[in-house]
Write a structure and sequence with these properties.
alpha/beta; Alpha-Beta Plaits; two-stranded parallel ribbon; 16 helices
Length: 431
């Protein structure tokens, strides 16, 4: 340190070395004191014996390193990071301890060590002006060390956290795939591997954003949405697996007496500002329920994607007719051809034909009752009769011979919309 009018550099250096050497001789006591303070002040660092042993080694390594650097006037950028300090950062990342706890530990430890340095300066009974310069040099070097080592350990922490999460996610995804493949599994081992209660009742999901969406953090948004939905349903923690950049699979564990699950999902989505599209299975129990609800959600998802952009925000497997539509709609091009063969011109994508299809479908569901259909449509019976006649004319042949095919074709039209309909032909205005 340059002369500031209070003392010369040689005198400051002599006392600095004496103070740090005294603390080096008491390194074990200093390490214990720092560790006790960290355990007292930072709850996240307590409890695990292995982590506490590694913390001790990290604290000891850091104190020894900074004391050595001060004693020998070594530039901080040339100091080697203590191996134990880097490994402690890695271990905290693996255990999910917040990075903030690690940074706080270095700030608190710095204060404890500086207090010890002040005591050391007082012990040498130096002139106050000289003691102030000694403290100034020690504080400046130790601060640079804390700033430098904090950057080192945070970089190591973040890299290890990313690697650990990626590896853990990869292992978890493999285990989930094994569950979905079917067959016998060790349920207890799987529960531990994927951190999800497989013995409960499960509600399977597919969640996704349209392909043209580019938030840049779609994966995070989808996972957060599922977590929020699980909280809304008073359920356990959701399980989420990314399928690709804009879609993922999920499960929410429910209690055995859970009711109105799909309606609760719909209400939550309606009130959520950034809700993705949602396909949901039924609430089913156990490992087989985990698999089956997932397959149901996938079927609902397939229907919703094929029906886009007219698909509702939430498509549920339990919705009337969806399961049958999903089976028919496994091949959209074949489904379109079949619908055209069954319904003829009635399978045209026009407002008028849509009205006729809706009336005909309702009429058939009501077992051919004009009165029941009229009540639901709020029409006069004669109005319903007219629409049914027009629908039959558009189809080109009567219904009784293949009524089941007609009902299924109408159902497919309801769910898939334009994807299975023929485009409306433009009117030739010259006629």
């Amino acid at each position: 340190m340059a002369d500031l009018g209070r003392s010369d550099d040689a005198a400051v250096t002599k006392i600095v070395i004496e103070v740090v050497d005294r603390l080096s001789d008491r390194l074990a006591d200093a390490t214990s004191a720092v560790q006790k303070t960290l355990e007292l002040e930072i709850g996240e660092l307590r409890g695990d014996p292995q982590l506490l042993d590694l913390m001790h080694a990290s604290v000891e390594g850091n104190i020894a390193t900074v004391l050595y650097a001060i004693h020998h006037d070594i530039p901080i950028e040339r100091v080697e990071s203590p191996t134990a300090a880097l490994e402690y950062a890695r271990r905290l990342a693996q255990r999910g301890v917040p990075a903030n706890a690690l940074v706080r530990a270095y700030r608190i430890a710095h204060k404890v060590v500086l207090d010890m340095m002040v005591e050391g300066i007082q012990e040498v009974d130096a002139d106050p002006a000289l003691g102030l310069d000694v403290f100034g040099r020690i504080a400046a070097v130790s601060f640079r060390y804390i700033d430098w080592i904090s950057q080192q350990v945070v970089e190591v922490y973040e890299a290890e956290r990313d690697r650990w999460l990626e590896n853990r996610s990869r292992v978890r995804d493999v285990r989930i795939a094994e569950i979905l493949e079917g067959g016998d599994i060790d349920v207890d081992a799987m529960i531990k591997a994927i951190r999800y209660p497989l013995r409960k009742v499960h509600l399977g999901f597919v969640v996704w954003f349209p392909g043209d969406v580019n938030f840049g953090n779609e994966f995070v948004r989808l996972e957060r949405f599922l977590d929020e939905l699980a909280e809304h349903m008073d359920a356990g923690s959701a399980l989420f697996v990314a399928a690709d950049r804009v879609s993922g699979w999920g499960w929410i564990p429910l209690g055995a007496n859970a009711t109105d699950t799909v309606e609760r999902v719909r209400r939550f989505v309606v009130n959520h500002d950034e809700a993705p599209y949602v396909a949901v299975g039924e609430a089913l129990a156990g490992v087989e329920g985990f698999r089956r609800s997932h397959r149901q959600a996938q079927n609902a998802h397939r229907v919703a994607v094929a029906a886009a952009p007219s698909a509702p925000r939430v498509t549920a497997f339990s919705d009337q007719g969806l399961s049958a539509a999903a089976l028919v709609g496994t091949d959209i091009s074949e489904a379109r051809a079949w619908v055209g063969e069954v319904l003829g011109p009635l399978a045209t994508d026009s407002d008028n034909d849509a009205m006729l299809r809706e009336t005909l479908a309702l009429f058939l569901r009501e077992r051919g009752s004009y009165k029941a259909a009229a009540e639901q449509l709020h029409l006069h019976v004669n109005g319903v009769k007219y629409r049914i006649q027009r629908a039959i004319q558009r189809r080109g042949r009567p219904i009784p011979d293949d009524r089941l095919d007609v009902e299924l074709a109408l159902l497919v039209c309801q769910w898939f919309g334009a994807a299975v309909l023929s485009p409306e032909q433009p009117v030739d205005k010259r006629i």
